[in-house]
């Protein structure tokens, strides 16, 4: 059997010490308490600060647990941050594909659209930012629902929007397992007749899925002659999701 991971043990020890010190602790305090080099402690603190678990005081000399550490069950990423990191990549995807592009995140079992790029053809379109979509009935939703481990986000009742909407919980579970296996989600007339969609999860720090990006359009443009989602479009969507995630991880 593999042993424990030392770096995680050390990080846990730092968090325990900070939890017991309401006034915070400095690098030297933690170094002395744990018998670790200051450089090692500083590296642990820098990482914990990066993921939002610890904060520094105004002087920068002391560290303490952040409010976010007490809310681990909530999403750690602000929707505005997701949108700001996604804008350029989503806009580029819409320009290259000629299709509608949306970025969304899972909130209480539904997908909230945080960014929406119109199809670049000057047609009449409504802005969807702030609207919610049923997670089980669209690719955008399935791409994030597949990686939710709480179970609370899974809709209790699967409402039908078309004759193709998945309303059987067992079938939905199989569909989400397939999404995890292949790394992207597809939708074919499940939410709107004659419309298909492709989505991919966006991974933030540590690989956590914080949202998804989706391309949506008429079936004849999104699918091939055999009604399969076009592989070139799937690759474009997945590359866009990875680029957004990379920006989130590098700049967090």
Automatic annotation (TrEMBL):
<dbReference type="InterPro" id="IPR029016">
    <property type="entry name" value="GAF-like_dom_sf"/>
</dbReference>
<dbReference type="InterPro" id="IPR036388">
    <property type="entry name" value="WH-like_DNA-bd_sf"/>
</dbReference>
<keyword id="KW-0238">DNA-binding</keyword>
<keyword id="KW-0804">Transcription</keyword>
<dbReference type="Pfam" id="PF01614">
    <property type="entry name" value="IclR_C"/>
</dbReference>
<dbReference type="InterPro" id="IPR005471">
    <property type="entry name" value="Tscrpt_reg_IclR_N"/>
</dbReference>
<keyword id="KW-0805">Transcription regulation</keyword>
<dbReference type="GO" id="GO:0003677">
    <property type="term" value="F:DNA binding"/>
</dbReference>
<dbReference type="GO" id="GO:0003700">
    <property type="term" value="F:DNA-binding transcription factor activity"/>
</dbReference>
<dbReference type="Pfam" id="PF09339">
    <property type="entry name" value="HTH_IclR"/>
</dbReference>
<feature type="domain" description="IclR-ED">
    <location>
        <begin position="68"/>
        <end position="250"/>
    </location>
</feature>
<dbReference type="InterPro" id="IPR036390">
    <property type="entry name" value="WH_DNA-bd_sf"/>
</dbReference>
<dbReference type="GO" id="GO:0045892">
    <property type="term" value="P:negative regulation of DNA-templated transcription"/>
</dbReference>
<dbReference type="InterPro" id="IPR050707">
    <property type="entry name" value="HTH_MetabolicPath_Reg"/>
</dbReference>
<dbReference type="GO" id="GO:0006071">
    <property type="term" value="P:glycerol metabolic process"/>
</dbReference>
<feature type="domain" description="HTH iclR-type">
    <location>
        <begin position="5"/>
        <end position="67"/>
    </location>
</feature>
<keyword id="KW-0319">Glycerol metabolism</keyword>
<comment type="function">
    <text>May be an activator protein for the gylABX operon.</text>
</comment>
<dbReference type="InterPro" id="IPR014757">
    <property type="entry name" value="Tscrpt_reg_IclR_C"/>
</dbReference>
<protein>
    <recommendedName>
        <fullName>Glycerol operon regulatory protein</fullName>
    </recommendedName>
</protein>
